[in-house]
């Protein structure tokens, strides 16, 4: 009897609905910024990764338009075939210079940078040790590599050391994976301790600087700079799509590492080179990050001010520990988190609920931007006060 091999899709979606895990897209109209139009409603935007407010900056837009006029819309091929342009190299040199690494390699997204790099560095005879809260791209890169994977409890250096002591000698190579800023919590990895452990156990260390680039460190180079670890041997991944306001990802490290990845990272070799527009916009953003440190200063002023307001006016609202623009507070259930997200939205605040399976416990995630005005932050706290305060206490 003929059966429909696709019926399970509807059943699966019904399960997702029942768990309150169903997700759908929301349309933003117009330029991105501290306020946006979301389904015809003007809202203050606390949902964006555009930490420095560069995604709608006229200089990035102009750079992208010029690049399109000069080089066209598409790169037309993989970088090793017809897809490489001078612009790509310029961007890679600018990233390496910011990071103070020997070289860098630009991928079509941060996700692809993680997948390709991890899969190229380790294989069946190797071990990956991965923080339990790492981003999906690190976790899936680990699976793709075929290496044995051990997750260590979040930022737990003692447990990581125990795992290394017990397991390291059973494997050829070992790679430790960590976000630098944890994307759904906002806290930082203990980078100096991780580097020391990596040295002690002869492991490679890969740090994902997606949410730290442009945000942390004196020059905005990221968490590595923030912790004074510039120049130490490690593999830095990042994205051009958050504080840098464009699209694309990168790996920064030694020239040998980059040369190796150009020959072995499947998600770099077998995909079309980053578009000229995205490449040029990212390059323009890196220059702005270097030339306008006041943007980062303003971002940190906004973060500190918002934390202070929350402490003063919402003493029961316990933010998760954070040293970044990402501020989260947990709710008792997924239903409560969805309700809170809707209440905020109705009051003109866009700060979405983040639910399992993305995170273990449901929460509201607030993402601060340099371009938020004092009034935006004050309105957020007033709305939280009148809508959410009782739900979280
Ligand atoms: N790593 C982390 C920690 C991220 O948060 C993200 C994006 N959410 C990525 C990697 C992927 O970056 P991209 O959006 O450039 O693919």
Automatic annotation (TrEMBL):
E.C. number: 2.3.1.47
**N6-(pyridoxal phosphate)lysine sites (modified residues):** 242
> What residues does the Aminotransferase class I/classII large domain cover?
42-383
Q: Does the keyword Flavoprotein apply?
A: no
Pathway noted in the entry: Cofactor biosynthesis; biotin biosynthesis
- SUPFAM superfamilies to which the protein is assigned, alphabetical: PLP-dependent transferases (SSF53383)
Q: Does the keyword Acyltransferase apply?
A: yes
**Keywords, in A-Z order:** Acyltransferase, Biotin biosynthesis, Pyridoxal phosphate, Transferase
Tell me its cofactors: pyridoxal 5'-phosphate
The organism's place on the tree of life at top rank: Bacteria
The reaction(s) annotated as catalysed by this protein in its Swiss-Prot or TrEMBL entry are: 6-carboxyhexanoyl-[ACP] + L-alanine + H(+) = (8S)-8-amino-7-oxononanoate + holo-[ACP] + CO2
Kindly report, in one word, the top-level EC class recorded for this enzyme. Answer: transferase
A Pfam family recorded for this sequence: Aminotran_1_2
Q: Which GO terms describe its biological process?
A: biotin biosynthetic process
User: Could you state a single Gene Ontology molecular function term?
Assistant: 8-amino-7-oxononanoate synthase activity
Q: Which family, according to UniProt? A: Belongs to the class-II pyridoxal-phosphate-dependent aminotransferase family. BioF subfamily.
**Function per UniProt:** Catalyzes the decarboxylative condensation of pimeloyl-[acyl-carrier protein] and L-alanine to produce 8-amino-7-oxononanoate (AON), [acyl-carrier protein], and carbon dioxide.
PANTHER family documented for this protein: 8-AMINO-7-OXONONANOATE SYNTHASE, CLASS II AMINOTRANSFERASE/8-AMINO-7-OXONONANOATE SYNTHASE
Q: How does it assemble?
A: Homodimer.
> What is this protein called in UniProt?
8-amino-7-ketopelargonate synthase
Task: Tell me which species this is from.
Answer: Komarekiella delphini-convector SJRDD-AB1
Quote the gene name from the UniProt entry: bioF
């Amino acid at each position: 009897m003929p059966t429909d091999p696709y019926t399970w899709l509807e059943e699966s979606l019904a399960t997702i609905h029942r768990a309150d895990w169903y997700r759908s897209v929301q349309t933003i109209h117009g330029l991105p910024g501290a306020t946006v139009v979301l389904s015809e409603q003007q809202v203050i935007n606390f949902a964006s990764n555009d930490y420095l407010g560069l995604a709608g900056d006229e200089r990035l837009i102009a750079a992208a338009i010029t690049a399109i006029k000069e080089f066209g819309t598409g790169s037309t091929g993989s970088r090793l075939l017809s897809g490489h342009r001078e612009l790509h190299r310029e961007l890679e040199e600018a990233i390496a210079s910011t990071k103070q690494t020997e070289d860098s390699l630009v991928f079509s997204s941060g996700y692809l940078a993680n997948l390709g790099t991890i899969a190229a560095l380790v294989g069946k005879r190797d071990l990956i040790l991965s923080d339990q809260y790492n981003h999906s791209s690190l976790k899936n890169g680990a699976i793709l590599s075929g290496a044995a994977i051990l997750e260590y409890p979040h930022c737990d250096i003692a447990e990581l050391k125990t795992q290394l002591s017990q397991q390291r000698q059973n494997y050829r190579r070992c790679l430790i994976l960590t976000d630098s800023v944890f994307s759904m919590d906002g806290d930082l990895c203990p980078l100096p301790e991780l580097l020391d452990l990596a040295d002690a156990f002869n492991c490679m260390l890969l740090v994902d600087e997606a949410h730290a680039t442009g945000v942390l460190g004196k020059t905005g180079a990221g968490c590595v700079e923030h912790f004074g670890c510039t120049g130490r041997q490690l593999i830095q991944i990042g994205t051009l799509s958050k504080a840098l306001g464009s699209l694309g990802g990168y790996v920064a490290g030694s020239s040998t590492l980059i040369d190796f990845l150009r020959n072995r990272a499947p998600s770099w070799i077998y995909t079309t080179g980053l578009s000229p527009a995205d490449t040029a916009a990212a390059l323009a953003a890196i220059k702005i990050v270097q030339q306008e440190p006041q943007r980062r200063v303003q971002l940190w002023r906004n973060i500190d001010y918002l934390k202070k307001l929350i402490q003063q006016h919402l003493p029961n609202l316990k933010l998760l520990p954070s040293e970044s623009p990402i501020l989260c507070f947990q709710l008792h259930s997924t239903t409560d988190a969805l309700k809170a997200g809707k209440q905020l939205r109705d009051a003109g605040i866009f700060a979405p609920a983040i639910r399992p399976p993305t995170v273990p416990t449901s929460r509201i995630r607030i993402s601060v931007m340099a371009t938020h005005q004092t009034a935006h932050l004050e309105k957020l706290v007033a709305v939280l006060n009148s809508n959410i305060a009782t739900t979280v206490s």
